[in-house]
Amino acid sequence: MSSGQESVFPEYETDTSQTSKLLRKFKETPFVPIGMAGFAMVVGYGLYRLKHRGDVKMSLHLIHMRVAAQGFVVGAITCGVLYSMFREHVMKPKE
Fold it and tell me: The pTM is what?
């Protein structure tokens, strides 16, 4: 960009590190990173349990882990939507 031109998105150009972007996203929508962390935890637990699955077939174990991870993410997104609706409509300042 030339020096005479203003930036369209100045907040995106000043915060270039991944950590600052993640912190900003966490402040804007806190349930998205919580859903991502929950997904990672379910996947980690699934990989740990993969070694001790006993006589359960591999495909059945993977299906159960996929459903658990997706359920956690959908639950986190639902909580985020409800939280944002509550914040916008119930806690909305009187105009």
Answer: 0.57
